[in-house]
Amino acid sequence: MIYFDNAATTRPNGRAVERAFEYLQDKFFNPSALYQEGLNVKNDLKQAREFLISCISNVQDTALVFTSCGSEANNQTLFSFAKRGNCIISAGEHSAIHETANELKNRGIELRIAPLNPDGTVNQEALLKLVDDKTGLVSLIHVNNETGSINDINSLAAAVKKINPKTVFHSDGVQAFGKISYQMGAAVDAYSVSAHKIGGIKGVGGLFIKKKLYNVLKPYIYGGGQENGKRSGTENTFQIKQFQYAAEDKFKTLREDLQKLHELREWLWNALDKTAFTRISTPSGSPYILTVSVPKTRGEVLLHMLNDRGVLVGNGSACSSNAKNRFSRVILACGIDENTADGIIRISFSNQTTREEVETGAKILNECALELKKRMNL
Amino acid sequence: MEFQSVIIIRYSEIFLKKKNRGYFERIFKNNIESAIKDIPHTFTTTAGRYYVENFDEENTEKIVSRLKKVFGIHTMSVGKRVESDMNKIFHTAKSLCPESGSFKVETHRADKKFPLNSVEISREIGGRLLSSNKKLSVDVHNPDFYVYIDVREDGTTLVFSEFFDGAKGMPVGTAGKGLLMLSGGIDSPVAGYMMAKRGMHVHCLHFHSYPYTNMQAKEKVVELAKVLSSYTCGTRLYSVSVTHIQEQIHEKCADELMITLLRRFMFRIAEILARRHSMQCLITGESLGQVASQTIEGMTSSNSVIKKLPVLRPLVGFDKNEIIEKSKAMEAYDISIQPFEDCCTVFLPKYPAIRPKLDYIEQEEAKLDVYGLIEEALSTLEKIEL
Predict the structure, then answer these.
(1) Of the N and C termini of chain A, which has fewer Cβ atoms inside 10 Å?
(2) pLDDT tens digits for A208-246?
(3) CB pairs under 8 A between A and B
(4) ipTM of the modeled complex
(5) Do B345 and A301 make contact, defined as CB atoms within 8 angstroms?
């Protein structure tokens, strides 16, 4: 099997799982317990928290609330900070922001949507025109999950704050954390991440938040007051430790992974048959994602054919006649025509991806795409 | 108090049968037994009535819900069986009565040796119930609830208070075997249900166009076949790929005839499979005029490729709303409306032919190697375990 759907989830880092498992066996205690063993676990959580914060910021300015996933972190941010006035998101947001923002709209918040450039990044000029003195929150995705486009969120945040310093700036960093080099800029207030995109386990995520806003952050789950009252529920110590260990490994090789995957991605693109494939994701996007299309076919059909040949990719367009379900709103927002949007698949890598996989994958991708075109009489 | 719970089953149309009633009854009993075979119980039969007894009280609802899916049952009652003794009958009747309200006692006396006749039994039990609880009253025309007393010939009496409707119809297996063309939509499971209700043992054939359709669509069809199977005492599900047929039609024939031509292939394949397994008809969920292919011209086109078997379309005269109601009642609707397309939409023409002429259809079809394609499709035949 060749796994090219790492933007959906990655294989858990085995070494990190083993370390966390040993930890769990030994230190299974409830971190809220008052005896020494419980306190030790609490300290271990603190250590995990501080390490993860140090990856993209510093503990003087930034706090981290562990959540169950990136979506929860996104929800908590939007419901905490978009309380009145207007809320701005981009047309390239993941559903965890897009749908949450729509819910805010239903609750009476004015929702403004910033358009995208053809390369999938947010159109800065148009975005800034939307910001005014009533803008409570701006949330922009860092690395788009469908196109790999990278928004320069530090400078976007700074530009937003120039117009309205009181606006809270959030970014969904799920596809960026541990993958691209980044330090949270002074103007970025909150940043969501998820463990399972970098070798962690599904079920843990986090919200980095600047300490000056920490008191304003509202809990999304109430109860025993864990996570300083910001997220009740007994801490998922095993997964948090595994997240820490996986991140330790991932951040260590972040730069060399970037270099390696940049080369692999370009190698793969160069090997793909240009009579079949059109490139959607740009070379300046995340090297972890290569989005391509076989125009006039359906991405899901190619996905099934590749699946039968042992290659797993992510889907763009679904086998549905219903236009609402069929096309990705993000792809259409990049100005891509329906025929091209129809045939999209997403190939996404991890630092485990090898040259051999990419070589074999390219061959199978070409064979399947050409066969599909032939079968569809294109 | 000495009584035991009993579920009384009364059958529907079978009583109209004369010489072959035994045949119908034998199949009916088997169907009932197989519906509840995993729940410990005893099953006894008398003329016109069956009894399920000696089961754990906790399983009552489970048994009743299973029996509600057995065709041939007219009504059912959950009650108590006691010794035919007026004191015991009274105490049992009292235990079934609510705290207050108006009631009526109705008695049937099969045991003519019982000292009181049915009117006297009703009067006496009614009187004793009245004097035992001041909040009860008698209303023989419009009571809030009934107490039914049935004095049987074996020295026992059945006391119960309600009649539940059964699925009615005829026992499955008494009216031959048919092959249902099952899609993932709303109509075809209902069509299968309706034929099963008339006693037909229904098996299913599903056409898929993988990789143009997905795995979830297949799972959905499996779920629908399972729902149908709960009414049919076991349904087999076959699947056949029509992917290459669609590709060939797309490549060689007029776009507007995609569905018309595809359906002719489906009918031919279904007839071959049905005859191979001694099934006596094809069943479809077509309803006249519902979509472009379900016009009378469309049906004529499909029927003209069938050699021997009748094609039954039990929904032909129903409105969509009526079909949806039936789909909900048989508990298939929530599965049917899952958004996975069962048929390839990649090749769907923008404007399908609504009234295709047979000559034109045949002329277009002649561009294809019809029998080669059918043989190839049949080589993809799969029996899916439910």
Answers:
(1) N
(2) 999 999 999 999 899 999 999 999 999 999 999 999 999
(3) 40
(4) 0.79
(5) no
